[in-house]
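S.,

As promised, the flavin-adenine dinucleotide run. Input:
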Amino acid sequence: MADKITVIGAGVSGITTALSLQHLGYKTEIITDKNPANISNKNIHPEFASLFPSASVIPHSVYSERLEELFKQSQSFFYELRKRVFPGVTIHKHFEVFEFEAEQPEYCNWMPNYIPISDLSETVVPRRPNDKPLYGWLFDCIFADWSLYFPALITLYQQSGGIITQQKLEQEDISALSSDIVINCSGTGSPLLFNDPSEDQLIMRGHLLHKSEAPLITTNDEDIVSYNYTPQPDVYSDDEGNACDVYCYPRKDGWILGGSRQVGQLNKANNWESFSESSTYAIDEIQFPTQIIDLNNEILNNSYDHRLEISDNIIPSVGYRYIRNRRNGLRLDQETISGKKVYHNYGHGGAGVTLSWGCAIEIAHRISNQHQKGIQAELLDNISDIDIEQ
Ligand SMILES: Cc1cc2nc3c(=O)[nH]c(=O)nc-3n(C[C@H](O)[C@H](O)[C@H](O)COP(=O)(O)OP(=O)(O)OC[C@H]3O[C@@H](n4cnc5c(N)ncnc54)[C@H](O)[C@@H]3O)c2cc1C
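Predicted complex:
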């Protein structure tokens, strides 16, 4: 088989999809405006979401009628990668804690070793130094250490013969592409490249802090612990008064701390606009909500005897999660444009890493007509054959 396929975009969706097709015997070329390998300051490319993820495999801030099946496909693939010691893939004991009774999302049913925190000893639950009752749950989740995982994925793609070409495409370039099959993984670039039927598009901006030289946080059994913690809305909320969460994911190279989910839009000059007003700290001229430091510090100090200060060695970043709508925003459909079959794979919101394998396998299934299980097995065979450490 030598069908040539063009994939637009070199984010996690584009690389994972192209790698999957490459391993199934197709010849793929990724065409991308920005190449992650050439970017030294990610903060000047906030629209390139794959430079920023935390990256936990939990379906947060994503909207799809097919979420369960895509998530489970992806999650099972990540667990297989974990067995093969793929760079950066770890398992965390992850807490989602609330200072109020929160509705339990459906995804809790999909996470291994789910336990409500009411069944746990109070001492192990991340908390602030107060007596407020806490609600929530604990489960196992896959975490992809981005500094290791994403470079390894790109290397694997190139080792498999995949080509990355840097070029910004315009709408009129699509008909001139050299292949008859095109896969659109251009994220926030999609509405400009293709006519998008969704009218409710929004950008959910997110801040992250990387604190280097911070220790792993572990349970007594040496499992790595991470958390999302949502206080009462008077402590941290969005413009509509909804409670917001902070979080901490320990990595080998320090902690990834968040977060924010600030809703806005891109104006004609492609700059983010919102009416959001919150108290902020600034590092390197990047402003971020004070709660990311202050609340995380309270929790880390009270529960794990660690400290977090604005004066620490912290690198801030801010990126965009692209959401097409809050009903069924993920676009995984197909259309014919100028005689070319275009498969769309974008609009993953805050879960592009989480759904990356599920969506890639779904696209590969549509193109190859092979069953998803067979595709997964073939991909894993190929990945096992490669010396991942190299
Ligand atoms: C702060 C933050 C935290 C996050 N945390 C998580 C998390 O914990 N877990 C998780 O699963 N997800 C998380 N996400 C979401 C995740 O990062 C995104 O869903 C994912 O990266 C989207 O990947 P993508 O490949 O679809 O798009 P992108 O990464 O945006 O890539 C788009 C690609 O298309 C290219 N492109 C665009 N326009 C053109 C054009 N005209 N011509 C050629 N190329 C073009 C771009 O150059 C780029 O290569 C987070 C996001 C943010 C901002």
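The longest strand covers residues 89-98. DSSP finds seven helices and 18 strands in the chain.

- D.
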